[in-house]
């Protein structure tokens, strides 16, 4: 087991879009931002969004601004690789100047990888991995309509390769959006299940980024890798985002039309994206990847169901950080020891997940006990994510966490 580590070099690093506009009604800026990059834009979104009045209004705004807006409105959940191929075939010769992603995380990731393929050519499989994008991509503008994924600011696109049965990341600083417009009014029409799943996703991003390993990278490592570990600047976003979710998620469950709660949750999701863009997600996301492919359950519910067990696995090497989490969330007894404060923080996260209706164990996600070994083996393929986890995780460790998660065992089995 590794000893607890910290950011000895006092490093801070952020990667972010060139322009971020946040607030209710701010989608009015989109035509102006798009026009800065040309007259022909491609909007990628999903079928639900194309039927909304907000989408019709947006397309009309583009037309009034003299923009030729093409639409790919068939983005599927979890972004199957075939979506990218179809969009490239349909719009490869359309002279697209910029790609706008409108929707949840899959739509935003679709914008990134479509901008890549339209500019660089080839198959998206050519770019699986880190820093394999060999030149500029088309300008990317992201417009999230859910509060959770953080994909509006991140420089990674996650694709589900259906033939291989796995989710794969295309990670490159070249995929960083040139602009993002974050308008909480878009989330008012989100279904309850989607709101809950994305809220759990945002919470998992903030917890994992905050409790990540501190890698203390060299200048060369900072240049060659996107995820350089927990750092001073990512922690700023984590702290603010966690405080916001601590008060907004339960308000949102009580009243889905509470715009103030929607705004706070969306700002927290943005904070999560800013943090994970350099700190990275970790074991909960690595474990969820094969589970998502197996059960086709929403990503946010998968990571949310796993997070309580991963937190307990990581606790022995992150007691001081989890104790700070307890204090941030206002649940730690100020005169208690660090371990008790840490447990209070973990249990508050448990409570927020429960308030969202996140499944309490893997059986509720549809995972069969016989599949746990295979899931553990496939988790080991997510080396980029496991490298961020503060406690090393091998196959046996992964299987132990999965068994606890399957049984709903939330005892502190390694922290006494």
Write the layout of secondary structure elements.
Elements: E1 19-22, H1 30-35, E2 40-44, H2 47-50, H3 53-64, E3 68-72, H4 81-91, E4 98-103, H5 105-120, E5 129-130, E6 140-144, E7 156-161, E8 166-171, E9 179-182, H6 192-211, H7 219-224, H8 232-254, H9 259-279, H10 283-295, H11 299-314, H12 319-328, H13 338-356, H14 372-379, H15 383-386, H16 395-407
Parallel strand pairs: 1-9, 2-3, 2-4, 4-6, 5-8, 6-9
Antiparallel strand pairs: 7-8
Helix pairs in contact: 4-5, 6-8, 6-9, 6-11, 6-13, 8-9, 10-11, 10-14, 11-13, 11-16, 12-13, 14-16
Keywords: NAD, Oxidoreductase
GO molecular function: alcohol dehydrogenase (NAD+) activity; metal ion binding
Family: Belongs to the iron-containing alcohol dehydrogenase family.
Structure write-up:
- By secondary structure, the chain is of the alpha/beta class.
- It has 2 domains: 26-182, Rossmann fold, CATH 3.40.50.1970; 190-407, Dehydroquinate synthase-like, alpha domain (Up-down Bundle), CATH 1.20.1090.
- Helices cover 49% and strands 10% of the residues.
- The protein has 16 helices and 9 strands.
- The strands form 2 sheets. Strands 1-9-6-4-2-3 form a 6-stranded parallel beta sheet, sandwiched between helices.
- A hairpin with a 4-residue loop joins strand 7 and strand 8.
- It is globular and about 65 Å long.
- The mean pLDDT is 95.
